[in-house]
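Two proteins follow. First one:
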Amino acid sequence: MLLLALDTSSAVGVALLEGERVLAQEQHHDPRRHGELLAPSVRSVLAAAGVDRRDLGAVAVGVGPAPFTGLRVGVVTALALGEALGIPVHGVSSLDALAASALAAAPVSARGPLAGGFVVAADARRREVHWARIAIDGGADALADPLSGWRRTAGPAVDTPADVAAGIAGEGLPAVGRGAALYRDTLPGPDVLAGASGDAHDTVELPLDPDPGVLGALVARRLATGGELLPPRPMYLRRPDAQVPAALAGR
């Protein structure tokens, strides 16, 4: 089955997959241009793979948590495609996709720092982060497959970096993701993982945002195994910045 994966929780990410295999993908980080970038990216990815959108079997979309406007662009686009093509739309936590992306980015020999569990943190703005705690089932041996062998044990939640750090104090959990990178003094963790061999080719920068190809593969795996998928609705953990003026609220 051909699966189109979208995520606009931070960057604009689009990927086309056949099962868990990525056929084409692209990603752009421009927090103010989600609406302008997403549709052209969908067209570009489909063209790169030589696929007509009518051949799609399903759409996967990251549902956040994330700030209001950017996240809504991805979810609405996924729903519109699903309606137009008559295909299902499956939601998945963008923080789950970020966790899988962090594990997928590194060679197996470089995943050791994450083997005891870790925190994923996305930029929630207002000097806060959207975050979740990730536990690894089976330690380092479970990390051979970034799509399984781990689970979310806390979150999704939104807090200040200091509150997140206080909540995991004493656990020694590293933090990864754009939110962690922004507040690295408070949420320490690796930005680069170096493999045991010391070879430069065994070193990788960890992703700041969910990789759309990994998000799609995660949804494909969960469809096959009955794992957790979510309704394609934006996950907002606080009210949007824009508010109805008090003088108009009662009209």
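Second one, unrelated to the first:
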Amino acid sequence: MSAGPDFVLRPWEMSDLPLIREAARDPYIPLITTVPAPYSDGAAEAFVREQWERAATGTGYPFAIVRSRDRRPVGAIGLWLRDLPEGRASIGYWMVASGRGQGVARAALRTVTGWALRDLGIPRLQLFVEPWNAASARIAEDVGYRREGLLRGWQQVGDERRDMAVYALLNSDGPGDGRAVATD
């Protein structure tokens, strides 16, 4: 799936182990994801198999974010469907340091959001951002997500429970760039 002229979203591959290694070294990514830390090839391979299992069972759509020019993976984005029976799904994304500051996360979020609302017809998408993470909040808002509030003690991050700001986009809202998304 294209995420603009410079990036594609694709299923995870065993060749993505260097991306997982870089993510495992990040001080934050392993705290908020299932990226294994400390890194080992076996744990990274299990992580990739877990992504395949999520897709196969329909619990989510995990994608590696890959730079087109050199086919180097630089991040991940996932659409998680646990709450789909209630008419909502969650999106999460992360970028390794070498992929940040290039508009990649924004393009990936815009792509997955449009696909989820338009093609899958999901009524509500939501994502959760720690209040200090201004870059991630800005990306969500640029794509059209609205901050709805603060969920106190919402998520275990490392050894502590942390607050999360919840952002949402309804199918009827349309994305921030003005393109219609609603399926009607």
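SUMMARY FIELD: The chain has one domain: 7-170. The radius of gyration is 16 Å.
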